[in-house]
Every structure is written in C-alpha cells, then in structure tokens.
Amino acid sequence: MKTKILLPNPSNGPRWLFLFPTSSPRYAFSKILNSVFVVIFSLHPVGLSAQPSGHPGIGNLAPREKAGLLLLQKQYDRAVKEYKKLLEHGEDDANVVRGLVQSYQGAGRLEEAEDYLKKRLGSSRRRSSLLYGLGYIYYLTRRINQAESFFSEAVQGDPANALAWNNWGAALADKKLYSEGIEKVKKAIGINPSEIIFFNNLWRIYDEMGRRDLALAEFENHVRDGQSVLAKGYGLALARKIRQEGFSLYAKGDLEKAVERFLNLAEIYRKIDHVSGLVPALFSLGLLYDEQGEPDKAEKYFQEVLAINPGHIQAREKVKK
Predict the structure, then answer these.
(1) pTM
(2) Measured by CB atoms within 10 angstroms of the end CB, which terminus of the chain is less buried, N or C?
(3) pLDDT tens string 276-289
(4) What single string gives the DSSP state of each residue in 94-160?
C-alpha cells in the first residue's frame, strides 16, 4: 500500500511531494519528518488552517480573523461574504482586498471580483487598496501590462502600500525585468520587513535569474551587520527553499545530498537564532543519519535536540533505542 505524504507549503498551498509504502523505513521517516516540521508553520498565522472547518469558536473570532480562517479552510463563498462585510464597514486596506480577491479566485469568480472592486472604486476614500486589488486580479489573469498600470497608480496614491510594490515586482519579474522587479520588492520589504511573502518573492526572482549567490551575499551581509529583522526574513525564505530541496532529494533516494541540505538548513536557523526551526532540522538530521546506518552521528543530533528541548519525546525515545 502506498500513502501520500503531505508537506506543508503555506505560501503556495499544500503540495504532495512523494509516495512511500507504509511498511517501508522511508515512510516512517517521512511521517516523522512531516510531523516535526509542522511545528514551524504552527507558529505562523497559517497555523489557523489546522483548525477543523466546523470549529465551534469561529463565531467568536474578530471579523478579520474569521474571514482569514474561512479562506484558509477553502470555504471561499463564505470568505467572500465576510471580506465584503469588512470593506463595507470601511476596512478596505490592501490586506483585506487581497483576501477578498483570493476568496473570489478560490470560488472561481474573479470576473465578479473585478466588477465589484470597480464599483467600489468610485465611492471609496481608500483608492490605493482597491487599485491594488484590481492590479492583483489582472496579474492573476495574466494581463500583466494592465496589472502594472494599476500597481503603479496604487503606490502613487499610497507609497506605503507594500503589497502593491511586491506584486509590481512579481509582474516585472514575469516579464524578465529582474532588476526592476527586485527594486520594487525591496521597497515592499523596506515598508514591512516582517512579511515573509515579500522575501519569498525576492528569492524567487533571484532564482529565476540564476543568481542565488546575490541573495546569499545579501543575507550574509544582514547577519554580519546585525540587521536581525532583515536577516530573519532572508533566512526564513532561504530555509524554505532548502527544506523543499531536501525533501525532494530524499524522495529521489539521494540521502547524501539530502543530508547536505538539512545541514545547511540547521546552519541558517542558527544564524538567525530561529530555535523553532532548528529543533526539527536537527531531529531530521538524526533520522537521516539513522537511516544511513550511522548511529553515532544520529545520536549526536538527537542529543543536540534534547539540549535545546529536554522534553522532546521523539528524540528521547531515539536516544534510548
């Protein structure tokens, strides 16, 4: 029997990466690895998606949280209604508009979203957020030139509209105007350096350019200069890519290279002092070395996990064995 292993990917939605027979050691490794890395994402707002769709407390959530939870649960039609309520009560900032557009997209009703935002544009005082929303719709429907025009108008109206800067950068990158795209995304980061999606977008552009080395150099510079917020953003985005590469290599049976990726992952988490990521990375290394038949190295990493988190049950069980 083969079973799908779900690897969390909050930026692009869940992704099925590989299959293993449930009786195989690699299935056991994958199951454990998946479970420990869920810890990372549970510390991010996307962790709300782990709640069941019939969660009894949803009615007690604040309106924004309720709308966001419905979107994450893929209850798109209900999410549309909640986001529209927010806009109609004057909460028409860019994040709310983004959620509305994503809800309409999930429901397969983007044309309706375009009509709705165009109607609101005439009566709203917050034109920048609605212009951004229209640009986002045009971007999603691959009308890139028109999208750029809306993003440009949005940031003219509100230079602090970070989402518009970020999406403008993505649109430019799609046209292979990478330098211009990087410039726009960095403007978004300058406005809100705590938003991980901006850093993910930046790394994507560098990767498409074939110049990950430039992004790595920027990351190291921020670490060296003590720019902890920027270093963390760069580091988390890089860690996401390396983690995905590690999973992919493991799925292909290349344990040696998978180990290299997880060693890199642990190093990044150490540099940005991200303990909640470091613990599962170290535990994963223990599992990988255990599977490779190197129990001494495996125990070393399990012991490192316990040094950080003495209550880690899985690591303690591995050490006992």
Answers:
(1) 0.78
(2) N
(3) 999 999 999 999 99
(4) HHHHHHHHHHHHHTT-HHHHHHHHHHHHTT-S-HHHHHHHHHHHHHHTT-HHHHHHHHHHHHHH-TT
